[in-house]
Specification:
Length: 332
């Protein structure tokens, strides 16, 4: 027959049992999804050309979302760039995308389908305009492109939009004063290397891998875009007001720049969606974008510039309600 435990032993046993239950409870609270589940379902994210920064950013963001929202299936969809991205989101062909401010403003000013439904989630990073020529080229300014064969990007691209604005600011007709090629960053470098074009425009984050590779394989340089041209762009009004003077740092493309910075212009990129996108989904996706900055930025250097302090500024688009909730939740 078992002997009864001494009173002090029973007391210790009770305290021990209570502590064990408390530990088990904490473990269950930590391990089990007792709270609200993360958003599920599927979304389409429109990116960009396979060798561009939008695409690389999209792939890395997809990975980050998979960790934060494992029930959400994110489908990436290549595009020609900003203009196509804006149209896809506005018309429901995609749920989220990255697009430059000038492309967004152009869509809004044109009162195109679904324009009133577009909303911003975050200001991300800046695109820099590249005007790339062979090092031996006599082209020293945008005006020198007159009569040249110039790749200006596909119809739906952000680079096409910005190239046309820059050419006009330099006093050139994009259709008649140059021989325009509708190639994108996937084929531009090869065309330049084989002397089938004299120059190409590109607008993207720094550095863009295709330009970086070209600069190592072929002797090229970047043509400056003067601050005077930026002033003329602002005189155009409309979407051109979103361009600003910028300096491409000397280490962006060391082989091409040979230690020198390059005067150019920049335009902000936004993460955008539609007004009717689920608010909680948008809140959590915005959270992932901000929280994954360092991880994505280690591979896409442009993403290092994503900053909580400026992410809220998505003019010309109002903030989506879900994004607004996120910024309120992290406000000091």
């Amino acid at each position: 027959m078992f002997q009864a435990l001494p009173r002090i032993g029973r007391r210790r046993a009770l305290f021990g049992s209570a502590a064990a239950f408390a530990v088990c409870g904490l473990l269950l609270w930590w391990l089990l999804p007792l709270g609200e589940e993360s958003p599920g379902g599927s979304i389409t994210f429109s990116t960009g050309t396979p060798t561009g920064v939008y695409q690389k950013y999209g792939v890395l963001l997809q990975s980050a979302i998979a960790k934060d929202m494992p029930r959400l299936d994110v489908r990436l969809k290549n595009s020609d760039g900003s203009q196509e991205n804006v149209r896809r989101v506005a018309t429901g062909q995609a749920d989220f995308t990255i697009a430059a401010a000038d492309a967004v403003e152009t869509y809004l000013l044109g009162n195109r389908p679904g324009a009133d439904r577009l909303r911003g989630c975050a200001r991300l990073y800046d695109d820099y305009v590249h005007l790339v020529v062979a090092r031996t080229s006599s082209v020293r300014s945008v005006a020198d492109l007159r009569g040249r064969k110039v790749a200006v990007g596909p119809d739906g691209s952000g680079v096409r939009l910005i190239a046309e604005h820059v050419l006009q600011a330099a006093g050139l007709d994009p259709k008649n004063d140059i021989s325009p090629f509708s190639d994108g960053i996937g084929t531009m470098p090869d065309l330049l290397e084989h002397h089938k074009i004299d120059a190409f425009f590109w607008s993207g984050g720094l550095p863009t891998s295709a330009v970086q590779k070209l600069s190592k394989d072929f002797d090229v340089r970047l043509v400056p875009i003067s601050s005077g041209l930026v002033a003329k762009l602002h005189e155009q009004g409309g979407a051109s007001r979103y361009y600003r003077a910028a300096v491409m740092p000397a280490d962006a493309y060391p082989a091409a720049q040979q230690g020198g910075s390059v005067q150019t212009l920049a335009v902000a990129n936004f993460l955008i969606t539609r007004k009717d996108t689920d608010a909680r989904l948008t809140e959590e996706l915005t959270r992932t974008v901000i929280n994954s900055r360092d991880h994505i930025g280690s591979q896409v250097h442009a993403a290092q510039l994503v900053d909580l302090r400026t992410a809220i500024y998505t003019d010309p688009l109002p903030l989506h309600e879900g994004a607004r909730r996120y910024y309120r939740s992290v406000k000091p």
